[in-house]
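User: Predict structure, ligand 26V.
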Amino acid sequence: MEKKRIVEGIERYLKVKHGVKLKDAKDYEIFNALSLTILEEIVDDWNETSDTYNRGRMAYYLSAEYLMGRALGNNLINLGLYDEVKEVLAELKIDLNRIEEIEEDAGLGNGGLGRLAACFVESAATLNMPLVGYGIRYSNGLFKQNIENGFQTECEDTWLKFGEAWSIRKDDEIQIIKFSDMTVKAVPYDVPIIGYKTKNINTLRLWQCEALREFDFNLFNNQQYIEAVSARNKAEDISRVLYPNDTAEAGKILRLRQQYFFSSASMKDIIKKHKTKFGSDFSEFAKNNVAQLNDTHPTISILEFMRILVDEENVEFVSALAIAKEFFGYTNHTILAEALEKWDIRLIERLFPRLLQIAYEIDDALMNELRQKGYDEGEIWNFRIVANNQIRMANLAIYVSRAVNGVAALHTEILKKVELNNWYNLYPNKFQNKTNGITPRRWLRLCNSELSEFITDLLGNEDWVKDLSLLKNLEEYSDDDQVLKTLMEIKREKKVQLAEFIKQEEGIIIDPDSFFDIQIKRLHEYKRQLLNALYILDLYYRIKENPDLDIPKTTFIFGAKAFPGYRRAKGIVKFINEIARLIDRDEQASKKIKVVFVHNYRVSYAQKLFPGSDLSKQISTAGKEASGTGNMKFMLNATPTFGTYDGANIEIVEASGEENNYIFGLKVEDIEKIKHDYDPKEYYHQNESIKRVVDTLINGTLDDGGTGYFEDLYNALIEERDQYYLLADFELFKEAQGKVFEDYKDKKKWAKKCFANLYSSGVFSSDRTIKQYSDEIWNIKPASVE
Ligand code: 26V
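Assistant: Predicted complex:
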């Protein structure tokens, strides 16, 4: 793109959108104008891509969450315009970095599941894969977190406050959505998904809910102002706010409305497109279309799809079901029973009575099949789609789908052998594994340009950004002192940058020459931030006993949002912050260790944390973390994993070697063996260091401000049998961390471990994952517009 065009574009959009000249423009106005300039540049390619895709078989990713983060930097990188735009702005005395930092994160997701969807759409675009993402345009994304006096507080996320430059509202493609008690508009906002160095531009279509009419004129004339706009507010409530998923929140009527809202709009959109090509002939529908359900959240799509085919398109029920079974695929993202969605049939009946009838009919079809296969009634119960006055969404999704997949090897094995074993025995061929991945564009090329340049220098070109398996070719340098030295210099530079950012954001000063031990992810008991905290507290006591304790100076960094209603998670936030305070106030301990809890952990913060890390903490109870994807982001940034035998940790360590990571703790099969007579009290009474740290929860050493938080944590460990096996893993954790500290003394040895992680990380590219979905589930091929 010509430099002149960029400047002209910025000036033009500053004028028409904000009514200002460049010299008077605020940073957010420049951000908007620059974004629109780029958007303008790609619109033709975007339309051409959609046309090309529409001619062939297409895949649709249905997800209630997309945790996109910021768009500008990523889009510039992917378009190959980053350096150019940086120069142009520099000539205008504007720092691109500052403009990037002004952008609000699009935080339309909770955590891994939503971020995975974001990586997937980016990879699909990069690979020219005909995939469209469908989701919800929440006015408010995941809440913003503050830490006040060590407690988490929350406030609303208003990411749209400056207007959002990166989407186009498509008023002519509105869908009308009917609930039994209200009818609303689904307005599509199309977000361009720009792949890396390709002309193809994919689409993420986010639906916004609006009322059919802005207000009731007659009520308004009667001066009933509130009543006049109440229908509008009720409609807008549907896409107002993202639900935090990490809690047993099922049964919420608004959440069900959200799910139906975006499912119905997406089904109607797909069927409309089909009809423009094939009229009312649905015989080839599944040949041309496939839809992936990102967890059970969009599973009501199955019922809506059936309703449209049967009631509106006059397709026979049996044929419609056969088509649906070809059309849908289902991804499971957790084995936690509490997370499996079930909807009360009275709720479904109240909002969409016809869908309940369809659910019963599908249930009947399944029962017939099982009876024919000789299943007895007892066995059949577990398969039922409608049972106990509930619709079991996972059973519906498994029955009516072409494939069911888990998200890491261990996770898929647990689904097959335990959680969904009955289904696996019924349909062994439906089950597949698709180990998660991450996009190397955002998670290395964009967030760590220093390391990226170094890799490019070593490999001679940038091909690795599109084919991450090429990183393996770095292995030949694994004994090259100069290469290892440069790698560690880059790491130091990224740690300096992170330390500066933390100072600016948190007002906390950390030493970039200390060891950065990082645990960043949603706060949940199964992820065991509490175990990490107890370990640190033990370390504190050991330093008190022996001020010369031989460990490297270490900064423990945490970042995590706790679901607002999840009391124990909030207690853990406070506990970590109290430990931080205890250490800060201690002259001896604070010389050796420091704890920082960064507030409002989000995608853009993550982009600074992963590159500035020395150790990746992935310590979930074995069997509980389906995959994890943060673990892959650390690895790609040349950071060893300290983790349990869980989720993708296992594959990470397999790829880069056990000797280059720290894998410890009870395995799934160990837990199976001990779970019946596990007694945490034995550990508590027999291990003095365990007792010493656990007692701080109740002996007044640490203060929870009278909330009862800490006593509750104590009870979880001691009285409620420590469901996540913290105490059973405590000594193993300590031993493994001791090894980390020992190994870190040998700088070269450590650098080699970091480097091994980098060159072994290729397989965790989401490009690989998307290729597997494309080949093994969706049966789609690249369709390039070039
Ligand atoms: C939901 C719930 C709801 C009830 C209470 C506990 C609980 C805990 C977790 C969840 C998350 C459900 C789905 C999810 O986000 N899974 C995540 O998906 C990621 C992408 O596949 C994967 O890397 C994470 O390991 C997995 O937790």
